[in-house]
Design brief:
14% of the residues lie in helices and 30% in strands. It is α+β, with helices and mostly antiparallel strands. It is globular, with a radius of gyration of 27 Å.
């Protein structure tokens, strides 16, 4: 865009400017000139050392004309990754994570009900190849970020993504940081939580004993109770019950897998319970002492279709 190509307008021509509406002949000429001119891309140059962002200088317009132009010209990041981007759906900002070898993407979800394309637009503006879908979730997770999950590509060895939420000062549906390792290449899948239909599997399960006021049974804590009692309580609440048996490792870690209910003894103790749908739960059971690790037959654990 060249200054000489713009319609000439004097301040007195900008009459009738109410709430950004231009009614004077000069103002209309300026508006038409801006709208008809092919916009050049704004290019961000992000230096690995300085972190400076170089932008093309804008036109020096008078206060009223500048307000009019701002209402018409939408900044576009095309031509290179932006350090920040916002639209009606989401606000994103990238930053160095403080020297630990990764980048941080700060996310604020303003409108979880917005079209998925708006979210995809924002992530791609900051240089991430992301597919955004609506994800079925429990009521308390509606509007939250689910993932990201790397579905194509790979992380640098020994790295991965971490997510932290921010509650204090968050004025949106969800605020938090996603730490992404430098050098990751590929395509990500991100979900925005929507209410799951009755019986639909949640994209992410909900551990009921960490939220006793909103669990399957109000103020119910299943930890360290025998399987028989927990099963009876949950079935009385209308839940379908599945089981995962967990073994402890000498280093304090643990792991397990889904097993048939017939192989779970009534006296074994429950570690925790997760809701996987409005009418279904998974009970995590501690393997008793003396039960050899991975000695029980494995079955397929229910998996939400949303990830596939």
């Amino acid at each position: 865009m060249k200054i000489a190509d713009l319609a000439r307008v004097r301040d007195e021509d900008l009459d009738g400017d109410v709430a950004g509406q231009a009614s004077g002949a000069g103002a209309r000429a300026l508006m038409e000139s801006i709208m008809e001119t092919e916009r050049e891309p704004v290019r961000n140059k992000i230096g690995s050392g300085s972190g400076r962002v170089m932008l093309r200088r804008g036109l020096a317009l008078g206060p009223v004309a500048a307000a009019l132009a701002a209402a018409l010209v939408v900044w576009s990041p095309f031509g290179g990754p932006a350090t920040q981007y916002a639209n009606a759906a989401v606000s994103l900002r990238t930053a160095d994570d403080g020297g630990t070898g990764g980048d941080v993407v700060e996310v604020e979800i303003n409108d979880p009900g917005a079209d998925a394309g708006k979210f995809t637009e924002a992530f791609r503006a900051i240089g991430l190849d992301v597919e955004v879908r609506e994800a079925p979730v429990a009521p308390e997770d509606v509007g939250k970020l689910i993932g990201p999950e790397l579905i194509e590509g790979s992380y640098p060895k020994g790295t991965g993504i971490t997510i932290s939420t921010r509650e204090e000062g968050c004025r949106s549906a969800w605020c938090g940081k996603v730490s992404i390792p430098v050098g990751v290449k590929g395509r990500f899948l991100v979900g925005i939580g929507r209410p799951a239909a009755p019986g639909e599997l949640y994209a992410t399960p909900v551990q009921i004993d960490v939220d006793p006021g909103g669990g399957v049974i109000r103020k119910y804590d299943p930890r360290d109770k025998p399987v028989a009692r927990v099963r009876a309580d949950l079935e009385a609440a209308g839940m379908k019950v599945g089981y995962v048996v967990m073994w402890d490792n000498p280093d304090g870690t643990g792991g397990g897998y889904a097993v048939d209910p017939a192989n779970v003894k009534d006296e074994w103790l429950v570690e925790h319970v997760e809701r996987i749908a409005s009418d279904a739960v998974t009970v995590f059971v501690a393997a008793p002492a003396g039960l050899p690790k991975d000695s029980l037959p494995m079955i397929q654990h229910p998996s939400p279709d949303w990830w596939h």
